[in-house]
Structure formats: C-alpha cells, structure tokens
C-alpha cells in the first residue's frame, strides 16, 4: 500500500492534474488458459510469452486499495478516476463516488459497459485506438443517447511503446470537428516531446504511463515517465498551450516596444 501512495505523491509533485487507475481482477478480464488468444505471442509486444491471466494477476490494483489511493489524490488536489472493465467494476467505483470514468480502447466494443458508465452521468474519457470511424461513431451515439455530453476522445496507438510513424496525430482535430467534443492523446511513446506536439492540434488531455523508477522493471516501465520527465512534460505542455493564443496579425503589445 505504501508504494501506490508514493506514486500518487510523486505525480502530484510533478504537476499532474489527474491520476487514473484500472479496476478489474484477472477473473473479470479473462480465463486462465495458456494458448490461443489467451497467450501473447506478438513479437512486438512487451509481454510476449505471457499468459493473459497471469499477467493480469500481477498488474491489477487490489480493489481495497482504491479508496486510500483516491483519498490521497484528493488531499493533493488531484482528480483520481478509473477505467472499469466490466459492470461490477462500475458498481464498485460508484460506491467510492468516483468523479469520472475512462473507457479503454478494447472496451469500445462493449455496449453494456458503455451504457452503464454513461448512465452514471459522470464525465468520460474514451480511447479511440483500433476502433474504426463507424465503431467510434456508434460509441459516441450510445454515450449521448444515455444522456452524457461531457466526454473526451483520445487518439491512441496500442503498440507498446508506440513509434512516431504510427501515431497519425492529424486524427485529433478531425475527431474534434466530427464529434464536436474535447479531444486528446493517450501517448505510449518514449520520451517527452511526443506528448507536447498534440497541443498544437487541439488536444486538451494528455495521458502518460507513470513510474517512480524504470529500474523497478514493472510491466510497462520501459514506456513510463519518471517523475522528473513527467514534470518536464507538464511544464512544456503549459508553454505549448499558452503559445496557441489566437489568430493575430500585426505587432503585439510586447512587440510594439521593439518596433
């Protein structure tokens, strides 16, 4: 329990506005089978050679930890929310009065979960990932039909780590125009620069994996940001946001002194 609380504190010191958990158990996610689709054989995956069930056993956050983690985040003026992977997780998170939800990329094709989350009336962040335009449109329609208008669509590339040529950031302004909503990026690239450039394309939410130390060798450590890296991302994103300004010609007030 001490470890996640240290992560919360480090994220707050780095300037993060929000902290996201994931709410599931191995049994709510998959079956304990070691072949076929239940075994990761993708050569490009960080988790090649893993049984999904065993992987989820070492990555899930115990549900009894959620309350203390969220309370510590609240004390540090950080919004803490979660990604539920089934309806029982939503029911549990509602007992904690969670303020927002995220729909993970591969849950875009889970209409009952989407409807259950939307009916809470809480804001939702949705990763686009591999969803086609038609599938994403269906997800957005379901959310709005359930009465939810406060949602953010994230461009996401589900390769770990993601490479620059697979990011297609021009999708971000296209989603904003098409769905008339806030947009952002769930960024799995290594380094800090790739998290800043989406601001120029209209992104208002940036999601990054976070770790206290890559030397810990967690399952996503290789693509996670260390505290000093996250702090740099926060500073540079703020500068990028301030730099957007408005459409303007002629000298600014600051420039007039130099004219």
Descriptive report:
The protein is α/β, with parallel strands linked by helices. The protein has helices spanning 2-14, 26-29, 52-59, 63-75, 87-95, 111-118, 133-145, 171-179, 193-196, 227-244, 253-256; strands at 18-23, 79-84, 101-103, 124-127, 151-156, 182-187, 205-208. It has a domain at 86-243: TIM Barrel (Alpha-Beta Barrel), CATH 3.20.20.70. The strands form 2 sheets. The chain has a 5-stranded parallel beta sheet with strand order 3-4-5-6-7. A two-stranded parallel ribbon has the order 1-2. It is globular. The model has no long low-confidence stretch (mean pLDDT 87).
Summarize the structure.
The protein is α/β, with parallel strands linked by helices. The chain has helices at 2-14, 26-29, 52-59, 63-75, 87-95, 111-118, 133-145, 171-179, 193-196, 227-244, 253-256, and strands at residues 18-23, 79-84, 101-103, 124-127, 151-156, 182-187, 205-208.
């Amino acid at each position: 329990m001490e470890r996640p609380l240290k992560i919360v504190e480090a994220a707050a010191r780095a300037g993060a506005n929000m902290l996201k958990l994931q709410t599931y158990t191995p049994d709510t996610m998959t079956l304990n089978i070691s072949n076929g689709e239940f075994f990761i054989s993708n050569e490009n995956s960080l988790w090649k050679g893993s049984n999904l069930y065993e992987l989820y056993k070492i990555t899930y956050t115990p549900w009894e930890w959620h309350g203390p983690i969220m309370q510590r985040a609240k004390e540090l003026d950080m919004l803490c929310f979660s990604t539920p992977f089934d309806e029982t997780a939503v029911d549990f998170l509602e007992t904690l009065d969670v303020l927002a939800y995220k729909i993970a990329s591969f849950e875009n094709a889970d209409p009952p979960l989407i409807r259950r989350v939307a009916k809470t009336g809480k804001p939702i962040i949705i990763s686009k990932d591999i969803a086609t335009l038609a599938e994403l449109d269906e997800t957005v329609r379901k959310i709005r039909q359930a009465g939810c208008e406060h949602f953010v669509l994230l461009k996401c590339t589900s390769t770990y780590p993601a490479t620059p040529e697979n990011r297609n950031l021009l999708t971000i302004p296209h989603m904003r125009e098409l769905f008339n909503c806030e947009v952002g990026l769930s960024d799995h690239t290594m380094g800090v620069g790739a998290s800043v450039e989406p601001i120029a394309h209209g992104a208002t939410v940036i999601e990054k994996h976070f770790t206290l130390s890559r030397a810990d060798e967690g399952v996503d450590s290789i693509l996670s940001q260390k505290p000093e890296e996250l702090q740099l991302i926060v500073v540079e994103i703020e500068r990028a946001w301030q730099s957007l300004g408005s459409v303007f010609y002629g000298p600014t007030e600051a420039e007039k002194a130099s004219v």
